[in-house]
Amino acid sequence: MPKRLSCFEVLSFDCYGTLIDWETGIWDALQPLLMYNAASSPGRSEALSQFGALESRLESDQPALPYPEVLCRVHAALAAAGGLRTTAALDREFGQSIAAWPAFADTAEALRLLKTRFRLVILSNVDRAGFAASNRKLGVAFDAVYTAEDIGSYKPSQANFRYLLERVKADLGVERGRILHTAQSLYHDHAPARACGLTSCWIDRQRLSEGGAWGATAAVGERPAVDFLFFSLAELAEHVRVAGA
């Protein structure tokens, strides 16, 4: 590892998949559709994989589409792909489900510790209202929040990371070399962050580095290099605590 964590002033975070357990949230939000069809399939792994493929394609094709509408359309497409009946109401309900997605059990406590050592920034692929609903579960006030709604595009677009770098410098006075981008998704975050010259910390909750499943995160053909690797946010926070002590 080329640097110590103490070298950084800002931790920029992806939210969904890193802080919020979006896979559980997505799967729970799909249950009304499955009940409406009295269906036991698709199974969780298949549904999450389909979700990841459909979501990333739609965000790439229509980068200005609000995230609730992305979810609404993905729900309709998932139903069609599985031969399931849906309704506009079910599609809209899924589109508004972000507020119910749970935080990972370690998120709030870990963020509170990290907040004592770093300034914390969000770079998220949702809209402002969606993140505000999730933020109530995260246990800290972030120093800056940048969403796809603010930027007009979705990660993995490098435009989102250029926006992050410009705004953190303008808003917090911190240059790129003092920012550590912290995220789970290789596809949404680590590949474009690396291309933009950001140092990165992989929170490998899916244990992809040990052969885990991709789940709702779109796969990458070649794994980008990362600078730090932890399997949970609690592990990162404990490393910081011990190093600080």
Textual characterization of the structure:
The protein has 11 helices and 6 strands. Helices cover 46% and strands 11% of the residues. 42% of the residues are buried. The mean pLDDT is 95. It starts with 9 loop residues before the first strand and ends with a helix. Strand 4, helix 10 (186-195) and strand 5 form a beta-alpha-beta unit. It folds into 2 domains: 5-21 and 102-244, HAD superfamily/HAD-like (Rossmann fold), CATH 3.40.50.1000; 22-100, DNA polymerase, domain 1. The protein has 245 residues and is α/β, with parallel strands linked by helices. The protein has a 6-stranded parallel β-sheet with strand order 3-2-1-4-5-6, with helices on both faces. The chain has helices at residues 22-29, 31-36, 44-61, 67-81, 88-95, 107-115, 128-135, 148-151, 158-172, 186-195, 233-244; strands at 10-13, 119-124, 144-147, 179-183, 199-203, 228-230. It is globular.
Feature tags:
single chain; 245 residues; alpha/beta; Rossmann fold; DNA polymerase, domain 1; 6-stranded parallel beta sheet; 11 helices; 11% strand; globular
CATH class of the largest domain: Alpha Beta
Shape: globular
Number of helices: 11
Biggest sheet record: 6 strands, parallel
Which class of secondary structure composition applies to the elements? Answer: alpha/beta
What is the CATH topology descriptor of the largest domain? Rossmann fold
Radius of gyration: 18 Å
Biggest sheet: strands side by side, in what order?
3-2-1-4-5-6
- Which range best describes the helical content: under 10%, 10-25%, 25-40%, 40-55%, 55-70% or over 70%? 40-55%
Separation of the first and last Cα atoms:
20 Å
